[in-house]
Amino acid sequence: MSQHAEPNPFELVTASKLSAQEAVSLWCDDKRLDRVNGRENCFINGLRGTGKTMLFRILQYDCQKLLNENVSFLSVYVPVRDTELLTTEFDVFQDDALKFMLSESHLVLLLTKQLASVLTKHLELVPQDRRQALQQLAQDRVSMAFQFSSVETYIFKRSTYEVFLEEFSSVLERELLRLFNSFIAQRFYDKASYQGPVFTFDTLLGPIADWIPSNTGKTIYFLVDDADDLPESHTITLNTWIARRRSSVAFKVSTMYLYKTYETKGRSAIQHPHDFFLYEVATRHLKDELENYVELLRQICESRLKLKGIDASAKSFFPPDLVQEAKVKTLEAKLIAEYSTIHSGRAIKDNVYRHLTSEYKKSLLARRTSGTYIYAGFETLAELSSGLVRDFIICAQRMYDSQRRRIKPASAERVTAIDASIQSDVVKKYASELLLDISNASQRRDRSATPEEWGQVHRFIEALGSVFKDKMYSSDSERRVFSFAFQDEPDPDVSRVIDLAIAEGYLMKGFISRKEGTGRRNLYMLTRRLAPAFDLDVSAYSGYLSLTSARARSFMDRGPERSESQGAPQLQLSFLDSGDWPMIAIDEAGY
Amino acid sequence: MTFAQDTLFLGLPSFEERSSSGLRQFLLEGGLKENVRCALIKEESSQSRAQTEVWKDLCSAEMPVIDRFEVKDLWNWVWSSIDADHESFVIDVSCMPRELIGLVLFALSVRRDSITSVNILYTRPGDDPDGYATTRPGLAEEDRWLSKGVFTTRSILGYPGIFLTEGEKVLIALAGHEPERLFQLIEVVEPSILAISSEAKGTSTILGAGTVSEGVVDYLRQRIQVPQMEEVTFSANSIDDTYKSLEVKCPAYANKNLTIAAMNTKLAFVGSALYALRERRIRLTYLVPLKYNPLYSAGTQAPELYDITVYIKSAQTTQVQLSQ
Fold first, then answer.
1. Do the chains contact at B71 and A88, CB–CB below 8 Å?
2. Angstrom distances, CA of residue A557 to CA of A454, A574, B10
3. Residue A164 has what pLDDT?
4. Which of A12, A194, A447, B214 is the most exposed place for a label (fewest CB within 10 A)?
């Protein structure tokens, strides 16, 4: 077999479609699992590609059985995107007076059907001597739902447990069809009243969910994936269940920052940490006391390489550019010598640290080779992916393909490392694609935003990146800037653009303490994924810029404020609002 | 083609020259002015001024302005236009957005017991040297497109399909002249099986159209990575043949979540929609474009009539309770 047919170790996989064996072999991180595991309700917020679905896959019973001898919970996976929930009928249905009653019935049927499916796959979950009781419970509850409907109730055959589960699933499926395809889907043209059975949490799902822990010793986790896509009335129904904090059931809800509402049917709202635990999968921090993203990526990377028989560490597979490193080292020595004449003690090292990459980039610019800065090395690539595992995998996949093309077809040679130039070319191209893609409205999740608004986000990010780039090429004392805060209250249009940028992961939100020592204000950080598009240094950021709402609006409306010819970075800053540029050291900025 | 006097005509004026051919034919062949129901698409109202004037001269029908981005707006117009006094309908699909055509067919299907006939009027653009912007000789490269941008991708109201959580996703794509739009739709659907083809040879409605569709399919087949890629046969110039082709193709996907994106001619779309009205497990998906090319088509041919009564009658949609 030709080496070119060798499978790429960084093949993208759909986590929800992985077999238990595949999922467990690819799984690396148990710290995230520890955070989510537990009887409390939990919202897992994170952008696309941060590993939420993989986390849900590994929480499922078949995977847990491979990982642990005793599993204390039973997960029921509910993917919102793959169900009938994403139909135009549900959008129109939001005007219907019966929406909450029907949404509850619909959601109960969906979740119960998924639970029945898990019980069918794992018959051993319910002990032999308890199966009859479960059948009786299901019969009672189904009969209760039918008692006031014009439809005759369903009587389960007195047969085996397997047959009962099949029957139960088909009843639930039939009722789902009755409810959606024959009723909700026609409510917009036929206002007939509903005469079918009504299923509620308290009459069907709740009692069965209560029965499971007391008879199997396992708490039920409902894993609602991509909950942003739930219709609003379903969202409110789910929130209402979460607010009840039932001890037998925990809801683990994944969102991509576009969860429609936290409102309940009682008009109150579920709140963190009272009703649920909030877990942000990837934040602006790549490392904290509980998690280390770069270490997680190292494990993912090495396990993928190992699965394909490649014996290499992540660091050796993605080596840095040694020539560039040597040049930077030489420059470092030169700067130390130079700064020793101006500064003393620790200040020498601090200033060299602050200016080294900037001075190196400026030296490339002076030789008109600014484009030859190389982004390479495992840690650089990990930092560039900015907490999004999928972005790292996509780039690694492209790098592997490029490297493989350099091997002659007949050769037995294998890819054991990626050239630094390939690494750099791929991440630069990826960053440019990401930047260009900002205004592509069809790829955005927030369907309420207009193409014009995405255009504003695009211009804002481009302007911001250009300002950061100017700063990198300046001779200021602090040049590694990747974040900003508002001096004043941003106007609603600016806030909207910032929110959209956060929802799509172009910006990340944090906070800083006010100088006055009274409270905090928001800090916004540009995603590192865009760093190569603006020729920025990703290794460390030291400060933030202070921006007025008016200047932000100018960014949104007009884009980068460049007066120099394209391609040549402006060495003098032109956008300052008040003649100076307030900078705050990183420690002070709450990192 | 002769129309009974009580036949209701549904159509839209647009910026395309062919948009008034169907109405003209309807009135020439016995249709009455008072039975014309039409509307103006909001964004196109300025571009289509010339054709609107032609429509106003031909009939005195009211022209409410409807927003094609708003499903409710489209549905309200459709539902209010198909009044209970009429049993015969003719729909001029030539310049109607596909989503609207889907809604009209769905609305008729839920009233099928009180309907005696439904016909489709379709007018092809002029043949060489006219035709579509994508086939017209001499047109600058930057003008060779039909629509641009994406407002949203959504299922067409009335065609939600039956989707089961555990089911594999299948997309049948009838490719037309818009590679980017179809590409984006495929990305949204994320199928594990994609059956994609251009129209069967010799069925194009105008000269050169098939070559453009073939190019689109070649381009997409190279660009898209799905686990399983298949082909699908359909006809660009026949509602019946497209319907029958799907009748042969779709049973292979029993127990799977099946979506159809019919982006070739309106006739192929009508064939697909009629099949989905019978096979309710099929979802019709539509990608709403942001704008249409004002040069979309040029010239006009003689309108053609297609009787679809038997298909509407065989729909499996839940009928409206007329007693309400």
1. yes
2. 11, 17, 43
3. 95
4. A12
Q: How far apart are CA B132 and CA B125, in angstroms?
A: 7
ipTM of the assembly? 0.84
Distance of alpha carbon A43 from alpha carbon A227, whole angstroms? 10
Task: Output the six-digit token pair for A290.
Answer: 């509980």
CA–CA distance, B136 with B143 (Å, rounded to integer)? 10
For tokens 């980068």, the residue is A560
Crossing angle of the two packed helices A99-121 and A206-216, in degrees rounded to 10: 30
Hey, CA dihedral for A464, A470, A472, A474, is it positive or negative?
negative
* Separation between Cα atoms, residue B11 and residue B20, nearest integer Å: 9
Alpha-carbon distance A466 to A535, whole Å? 9
The sign of the torsion formed by the CA atoms of A397, A403, A407, A411 equals: negative
DSSP 8-state symbol, B300: -
Low-confidence ranges of chain B (pLDDT < 50): 324
Joined tokens for residue A209:
């969910």
What does DSSP assign to residue B125? P
Residue to test with chain B: of A86, A222, A397, A442, most B Cβ within 10 A: A442
pTM of the entire structure? 0.81
Low-confidence ranges of chain A (pLDDT < 70): 1-5, 30, 282-290, 369-371, 441-448, 513-518, 540-542, 562-591
Residue written as token pair 């590409």: B183
Q: How far is A333 from chain B (nearest CA, A)?
A: 49
Contacts A–B by Cβ distance under 8 A: 85
pLDDT at A287: 61
d(CA A224, CA A196): 26
